[in-house]
Amino acid sequence: MQExxxxxxxxxxxxxxxxxxxxxSSLTRLLRVTAYxxxxxGKLGGKSTQTGPLVAAENSEAEEFWVKQVxxxxxxxxxxxxxxxxxxxxxxxxxILAPYLQEGLLCVKGRLEQSELTQEEKHPILLPRSxxxxxxxxxxxxxxxxxxxIATLSRLRERFWIPKGRQxxxxxxxxxxxxxxxxxxxxxxxTGQLPKDRVVACPxxxxxxxxxxxxxxxxxxxxxLQKVYIVLFTCAVTRAVHLEVVSNMSVKRFIMSxxxxxxxxxxxxxxxxxxTKTFRSSCEILKGFKSIIRQPELKSFYHF
Length: 304
Hints:
This protein starts with 26 loop residues before the first helix and ends with a helix. By secondary structure, it is α/β, with parallel strands linked by helices. The protein has two domains: 21-181, Endonuclease III, domain 1 (Orthogonal Bundle), CATH 1.10.340; 199-296, Ribonuclease H-like superfamily/Ribonuclease H (Nucleotidyltransferase, domain 5). α6 (149-156) packs across α7 (165-173). The protein has helices at residues 27-44, 56-74, 76-83, 119-122, 131-143, 149-156, 165-173, 177-182, 196-199, 251-265, 277-293, 296-302, and strands at 99-102, 105-108, 125-126, 160-161, 207-219, 225-235, 241-246, 270-272. β5 and β6 form a beta hairpin. The longest helix has 19 residues, at 56-74. InterPro entries: Integrase_H2C2, RNaseH-like_sf, RNaseH_sf.
């Protein structure tokens, strides 16, 4: 008896997507990449000879591709029934929307048939919650300069109907970094203690804070206009204020204003200022002067 061997080859075809949408965070980039891939596939099949930059028709084709892909993933059962000319069972989650197919896209009839809206607004495209839907929501949100939930949903409903749309839009907008930055609440903290220099009684201008303000424009003796600045000296205890006018914010002008202030108000014990270059340079100059007057040769000169 002759033995026969039968070899069976089994091929498993994976339903991998054309493009991994999870690696893209922008709808514009997704549509452009998809349009270029579809152009390449069209050239392989001899159906396309388009070259150069993308045109509007290719972007529309890419958008239609992703809408059909998302609808097929979530509503394959309903689309199959409609393609066969059958009614969708009443147990379907979208049966209440009375969906129908228009050029391969699943649309809803709605209740605005008698209105004067456009056909897209009367019968929007049904779009379930997916990664593509999230990118679409974020795109409309950014295109409208970071609209709120209601305004973003209103723009989306001009073409699409998203089940639980308000909840979906609100969830996506929470991930917008710009909106989170401007809607963030300030941190709360307990009241801190004031430093000792601010609460201990002492003569005016013993503890001083200084800063620049301005610029302001003044008229000179000849009638010409000149820009000047004001050096503000304020007492940290009594809140008394002393003003000095300077022609610029250089180190030389500040030290001259400081000399006039000390000559008028007396020596100060503590000075507070910000970290600007003028104040830091003045501090280094004053530290150098302090080291000079502490030299023994100078002390022997002015001590009798």
